[in-house]
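Hi there,

I know you've been waiting on this one. I reran it after we fixed the sequence typo, so this is the corrected version. Both the input and the resulting structure follow.
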Amino acid sequence: MFRTSRIAAGVATTALVVAGVGVGLGSGVAAAATCEVSSHDTKQDWSTVGVTHVYDKIASAEQIGVGTSVTYKVIVGTTGIGNPYVNTITDFPPVGFGAPTKTTITAYHAVGGQVTEDVTAEPNAGGWKVTSTGWFVNSGNPVTLTITYPVPSGIKVGQMVTSGGVGVAGTVGVSNEMPGLTACFTARGANAGETVIGSLGDNGLGSDDGQLSSTGSLSDIISDVLGDLIGS
């Protein structure tokens, strides 16, 4: 079950997260006493024609190693019979984070159902957006953006790191600006495996998906090196 974040008073009035060309609002180290790994928002007004649209943002873990990677999922769905189309999703990472290393979209296709595809994220007002001619959404088929960023080595162990919000554009009802749709994680020290693989990944030698999830890639590299030495 997703947990609703506590949004600092006044944040929503300071800036807007606009999906297409607007102004982004980012967050850095969380100032609140709690660190919520996910947040949830809904929209039901005159533009949704009685249908409720739902939005979630989730960080990949409550604690993440400094110098590794964090992955956010942004989910856009509906609980009603409406069938909106989403054409832009903008994610705002924590302040000071660099470009994403991997981005995918999972969306409904007439052939194949829910399909996950690699996409290219583009800079947008301090965040990173993905666009389409239109991803179909209904009550059983949300659209999900999955986006991975390196965690800067300058983050201190124990810091609570809160992302910026999310912007969505599409048909009128589903479009929304949500600076408070954030996700937080607490920075921890990276273990030895994460540190080594992260360094290799910077040079294109890490796992295929850019994640720091296993030591398989490292084992392969070591085996290849030993093989070359024996062969020589």
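Quick highlight: The mean pLDDT is 78.

Best,
R. S.
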